[in-house]
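Sample intake sheet
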Amino acid sequence: MSGPRPSSEAAFIDTLRVFAHHPAARGLLDDAAVLEVGPVTLVLTHDMLVEGVHFLPAQSPADVAWKLVAANLSDLAAKGADPLGVLLGYMLGEDDLDFQAGLIEVLEHYGVPLLGGDTVSGGPPQALGLTAIGRATYCPVPSRSGARPGQGLWLTGAVGAAMLGYEASRDGTGGDAEAFLRPMARLGEGIALAPFVTAMMDVSDGLLLDAWRMAEASEVSLAIDGAAVPIAAPEERRLDALRWGDDYELLFTLPRGVDPPVPATRIGAVEPRGFAPLFLDGEPLANRDGLGWEH
C-alpha cells in the first residue's frame, strides 16, 4: 500500500551506488538492470512485498501473488522488455494453496513461466520477493535518464484508482478494489513505446515522486500540469492521486512532434534544470519528502 512517508530508503540506496560498478546496474538509477549477454540484452528486476506495508494482512493470498508478479513485470514494461520467466522467493504463510492458485493464474495470464526460486519459514509479517527476467525488444533500452529540454512528458492511463481500491479494501466498503488488488503491467504499451521514448519508467511509488526520480536521473526539471493528469478519483482528491502509488502506468518523454503509438496523455514538459527538479502548476517542489511512497 502506498502513501507518503519519510524514511532512509534513498540514503541507503545512495550508499549502495558505491559498489554498483557494473554497467548493467545503470548506477542504481533505473527500474531494472540491463545486461548484455552476447547478442541478447537481458532486463532483470527484483521487487518485494511485505505484509502490512504493501498488502493488508487480511488480503487474499491469491491477490497478493497477482500483485507480486504484476509489480515486477511492470518494471520490465518500463524497459520495453518481453518477459522470459520469474524466480520466486516465498515465505510460507497461512494459506499457501491460495497463493499457489493466484500465482498460476497470473503467470498464465501473462504467459510467463516460473523458473525456480526459494521457500523459507518465518513471519509474521510475511515477506515475498520475485525476480523477473526479460529480453529487450529494442536497443538502446529505455532508461530514466534520457529526458531532454523541449520534450513532452506523457502518461499512459490514469492515477488514483489504486488509492481508492486500497481504501475500499481496508475499510470493507464493498467498493471496487481491483486496481489495488490486481494491478496490470503495461507490457504491450512498453514494447510499443520503446523505439520512440527518450526516457521511461513505471509509476509505482506515486506520479510526483517518480517524476522527481526521472528528473534527477536526467538532470533536468520536469514541469507537470496537474489539471492535465487523468485521475480515477474525485476531483477534490487530485493531489492525493498524484502522490499515491501502485497504479503501474508508464511515465515517459517524447521528442517534440512525436506522438505516442499507444493511448496516452501529455501532462507536462521537460525544461532545463532549474533550482528544483520538479514543478507542479508552476510551483517548485524542491524537497522529495511527501511526494510519494518511500520506506
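Comment: Residues 1-7 have pLDDT under 50 and may be disordered. The first helix runs from residue 9 to 16.
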